[in-house]
Design a protein that fits this description.
- There is one protein chain.
- The protein has helices spanning 4-27, 34-53, 57-68, 74-87, 95-109, 123-129, 145-158, 171-174, 178-181, 199-208, 223-227, 229-237; strands at residues 113-117, 137-142, 164-168, 187-192, 212-220, 241-249, 256-264.
- Strand 4 (187-192), helix 10 and strand 5 (212-220) form a beta-alpha-beta unit.
- The chain contains 12 helices and 7 strands.
- It has 273 residues and is an alpha/beta fold.
- 51% of the residues lie in helices and 18% in strands.
Length: 273
């Protein structure tokens, strides 16, 4: 069995090789420079931390919150996660900068039924649930059971467990069950922050299942980086949606990113001017 220093060296060497490949591809103009930033963090920093600490990044984020945030205070939870992810380990939360746009949209729409696609560690669920009016609910779908468990613990710690239902499964499997199994008529708002290639198929599925009503707001994260070009082309080119773009930066970085707000106007909507 390899000793810990050998494992660290192996992890670091493997990460450097992959990072060098990313740098070459970026130099040739074949990939976005944001992948260099993500590659450094995910291929080098995280594996080394995992070996040194004997756990994983998501568990470390949860433990840091439990040790340093104020229980029952969602704002304290968010600030503690933001501080950890900006100072210690990068993570794919929506983050504080784009989070301000999320706050604006949630406050404007005041949704009674909100769906989140992709919970990860529960950051955006905490962020949105803290602003929901009394009696409103958030359903968050997460395909990874480990992430779902961390999300539930994060919500419990923030005191928001009564407002949020964490559903484990693939979005394409859960969406058709929302009406009968989860008592959803139509959705007031949908926050898309899962696999980017699922943005468009799940938007079409939501419409097909009758879950969108006139005025339903779709808010999609990471539409610039890593990017969701097919989703953007669809909603911006469709008479059924009215779109607004919020330009910002990838969480905890200076990589340009943005959120897309797409308001559903109905299946028979006339073309937008």
């Amino acid at each position: 069995m390899l000793e810990a220093p050998s494992l660290l060296l192996a992890a670091f060497s493997s990460g450097l090789v992959l990072l060098a490949l990313l740098l070459f591809l970026q130099h040739r103009g074949w990939i976005h420079r944001g992948w260099i930033f993500v590659g450094w963090n995910e291929l080098i920093v995280v594996p080394i931390y995992n070996l040194l600490m004997g756990d994983n990044k998501e568990q470390r984020i949860l433990h840091h919150v439990q040790q340093h945030a104020v229980a029952g205070d969602p704002q304290s939870v968010l600030e503690t996660i933001d501080a950890y992810c900006s100072q210690k380990e990068w993570a794919m939360n929506v983050g504080d900068k784009k989070g301000q746009f999320v706050d604006i949209v949630v406050r404007e729409e005041c949704p009674s039924v909100l769906l989140e696609l992709g919970a990860y560690c529960g950051y955006s669920a905490v962020r949105m649930a803290r602003l929901l009016p009394p009696g409103a609910r958030l359903l968050t779908i997460e395909v990874n059971p480990d992430y779902a468990a961390i999300t539930q613990q994060m919500l419990d710690f923030a005191g928001l467990q009564d407002k949020v239902t964490v559903i484990i499964g693939a979005s394409q499997d859960i969406i058709p069950q929302l009406k009968k199994k989860y008592d959803v008529d139509t959705l007031d708002m949908v926050f898309l922050d899962h696999w980017k290639e699922r943005y468009l198929p799940d938007t079409l599925l939501l419409e097909e299942c009758g879950l969108l009503r006139k005025g339903t707001v779709l808010l999609a994260d990471n539409v610039i980086f890593p990017g969701a070009p097919d989703f953007l082309a669809h909603v911006r080119g469709s008479s059924r949606f009215e779109c607004t773009h919020f330009s910002s930066y990838l969480e905890y970085s200076e990589v340009v990113d943005g959120l897309e707000k797409a308001v559903y106007l109905g299946a028979g909507s006339p073309p937008q001017p």
